[in-house]
Design brief:
Helices cover about 45% and strands about 15% of the residues. By secondary structure, it is an alpha+beta fold. β9 and β10 form a beta hairpin. The longest helix is centred in the last third of the chain and has 21 residues. It is globular. The N terminus is likely disordered.
């Protein structure tokens, strides 16, 4: 299954034993690696799977500020929004070209009735060609900011400043609500950094994220974002910091910044091929699949991350397959249920366009 899968199996097997107690130990030790992996994935999804209404009220944050951009600017995609990176990914064979004019027209048609402020970023991972609408606009990031925390963690691991097997002990003061399950563990429970990273990305665990932020330092995380070229991204507060939320302080990212991280992961350039593989597996185990994933064919693997605020929905990731691509949607000022519907429509339209290329 590979070294990175073994890493996740090891930590998730510990997770199962911690959850179910010593009586389960003999069963776990008698299982194959594949069964252990499957069991852990099932349990993680079971704990994360909540009705949308509950996710919206108990998610990472509570209220996003209103976007002041003109409605026409928000929803119209112009040809100027489409750009090619300086160094497109090289392929042995010439990739099939996507009809961006047709895609532009279709997305305009989908987005217009929803109102609000919608950002879309797309990267064709075969040609390197990129396409976005309002892709550079910084918006409240919700739990997407956890990707930037992961970046700094991986940077320090790559420099041997820390190890993913290092252990942190959860204090009572670390525990916050919202998404995640380690908030229900006893204080003084120990976790490896690998376990915390998995929980932060796959289960969007707020307590795990805050423990890592406290370890790494907010300033170091923001410095790393700048080094990665994430010009619209900034970590401004901890997860579920109600005082900061009341003061209107939000963590910020843009659709283009989010897409850039996913492209680096898929290309094996997220610090190292090994760490890129680890990040990809965390994303493939995402517990919330109610947005873009629901609009893709069931045969498509979507390695992704989500974020939710009141009237703010974000989803983005890597659609794997013969013609891989990155798709990110940020929907602000739209009821969460309607935002999920919008995402499903966008995902279906983009995938059909890719498949027809």
């Amino acid at each position: 299954m590979g070294s990175q899968t073994s890493f996740i199996v090891k930590h998730n097997t510990c997770w199962i034993m911690r959850r179910l107690g010593s009586a389960f130990l003999a069963i776990v030790l008698g299982m194959s690696v594949a069964i252990a992996m499957s069991s852990c994935s099932f349990l993680g999804n079971q704990e994360e799977d909540e009705p949308l209404a509950e996710q919206t009220t108990s998610s990472e944050e509570t209220q996003a500020p209103e976007d002041t951009v003109n409605a026409d600017e928000k929803n119209l995609i112009s040809a100027a929004d489409r750009e090619k990176p300086d160094k497109p990914q090289q392929k042995m064979d010439a990739p099939n070209k996507i009809d961006f004019d047709s895609l532009e027209s279709k997305l305009n048609e989908i987005i217009a009735p929803y109102g609000g402020s919608v950002s879309v970023a797309f990267v064709d991972l075969e040609s390197g060609e990129a396409f976005s609408v309002r892709g550079g606009v910084s918006q409240p990031a919700a739990s997407m900011i956890k990707l930037v925390v992961l970046a700094e963690l991986f940077d320090q691991a790559e420099q041997n400043a820390l190890s993913m097997d290092d252990v942190l002990t959860m204090k009572a003061s670390d525990v916050v609500g919202g998404t995640g399950v380690i908030q229900y563990d006893d204080p003084n429970t120990e976790y490896t950094l690998g376990e915390l990273a998995y929980c932060m990305i796959s289960e969007s665990d707020n307590t795990a994220a805050n423990m890592l932020i406290e370890l790494l330092g907010m300033s170091a995380i923001n410095d790393e974002a700048q080094k990665l070229g994430l010009t619209s991204s900034e970590l401004r507060r901890l997860m579920m910091d109600q005082e900061a939320i009341s003061a209107g302080i939000q963590n910020m990212m843009s659709a283009d910044d989010i897409a850039s991280i996913f492209a680096q992961i898929q290309e094996g350039k997220f610090y190292s091929p090994e760490l890129s593989d680890m990040a990809l597996e965390f994303l493939e185990m995402q517990a919330d699949n109610s947005g873009l994933q629901a609009g893709l064919p069931s045969s498509k693997v979507f390695a992704h991350k989500t974020g939710t605020l009141t009237n703010m929905q974000i989803d983005g990731g890597i659609v794997e397959g013969d013609h891989p691509y990155v798709l990110v949607v940020m929907a602000d000022g739209i009821d969460n249920d309607r935002a999920l519907s919008l995402m499903r429509e966008v995902a279906q339209a983009v995938d059909e366009q890719v498949e027809s290329a």
